[in-house]
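task queued by scheduler; priority normal; single chain, no ligands, no partner chains; default sampling; output format set to C-alpha cells
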Amino acid sequence: MTSSKGDLPRDATSDRGSPVVTATVYTYDASGLTEERCELHAIGELLHSARANGKRIWIDIESPDRRHVAAALAPQLDLHPLSVDVLISHNHRTSVDEFPGLAHIIMEIVHVDHMLAFEKVDLLLCGDWLVTVQDRPGDCFDRARRRLRDEAAFRSRTIAFLLHELGVAVCASYQGVLVRFGQRLEQLETRLIGRPSPGLIHRIHAAKRDLRGLRRAVLPLRESIETLFYANRRWSGAGQAEAACGPDLYLALREMHDELGGVLDILDAYRDATQNLTDLYITSASNRVNDILRVLTIISTIFIPLSFVAGIYGMNFDVMPELRWPYGYAFALGIMALIAGALLLYFWRKGWLRKADVARTPSITKATSFFDELKRS
C-alpha cells in the first residue's frame, strides 16, 4: 500500500519524554512502492527483508540529533568510524568519500527564508539501499518521490539512479535560487543607475555573501568527484564504493559532476556581476557627488558678482552719484538681477543645470524581486 509522506504518523515520544526519531522508508521494485514509518532500531531488519525479497530501499531520516542517529545506524549498517564522525558533524564540507562497502556523499540543501540557509545532507549508499540523513523537515526531493510512486521504469533501475535523481534535485534547487538571484542583481543594477543610495551597497555585500555560501556548497563536492574520477583514477579499477554499489555509481556521479559544473558557471558569472555592481555603485556615487558640487559651484558663481556689486555700494565714499539718486536702489537690484539671470541662462545653455539623461523605459525587473526590502526602500 502506498501513502504520501504527509499522511504518515509523526514521531512518537518515549516514556522519558524524549522524541523517538523515526525514518520514512521507501521499499520498491518494478512492481510497486511501499511507504512506511519505522524507528531507527528497526532499520537493519528492514534492510535484511528488502534484500531477501530482491527489493531496493530508501530510508529518509530527519533529525537534528545526529549523535543519536549515528549511534543507531553504525551497528546496523556496519559504518566505518570515520564515516560515523562525518555523519555526526553538522558543518562537514560537501564531498564524496569511499569506505569499505559504502559510499558516503555529503551535499547541502539551500533553504530560502529571510536569507539563504544551508543544510547538510548525508547520503549513505551501498548496493541496493540508500540512507539520507537531514537535520530538519522539508527538502527538494519531492520529484524523486513522485517518480518512485508513478514510474515503474524508474523503480526498476539500480539505487545509483535514485542517487542521481537526488543530486539533480539539489542542483535544480540551486538553479531555482540563482534565477531569482539574477533578477535581484538586475534590479540592483537598475537602482544603482537611477539613484544610488548608501543602503544599496549593503545589499551588494549580502549578494556576495550568498554567492560565497552557494559556492561553498557546490565547489568542494565537484572537486571531490573530480579527484575520484580523474586524478587518482580509483574508480577505473576496483574502487571500494564502486565494488559495493556497482558500475552505475560511476555514471551517477559523473552526471552530478556535469550538473554541478553548470551551477558553478552561473555562480562565477554572478560573482563577476556583483563586482561590477560594486564598481557601478562607486562610479554612480562619484557622479552624484560631482553633480552636487557642480550645483554648489554654480550657486557660488552667481553670487560672486552680486557680492561685488553690493560691495561697491557698501564703500563709504562721499562722491557716489547713485547714493543720492532716487532710483539708485532699484538700479542696483536690477543690475544684480540682470547679472544673475544672464549667468543662469549661460549655464543652462551649456547644459550644466540639466539632469543627466535617464532611461524612462520601465525594466521588467520591477515586476519581480528576491528580497522584499528592495520594494520597500
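post-processing summary
- The domain at 289-376 is CATH 1.20.58.340 (Methane Monooxygenase Hydroxylase; Chain G, domain 1).
- The chain has two domains: 5-281, 289-376.
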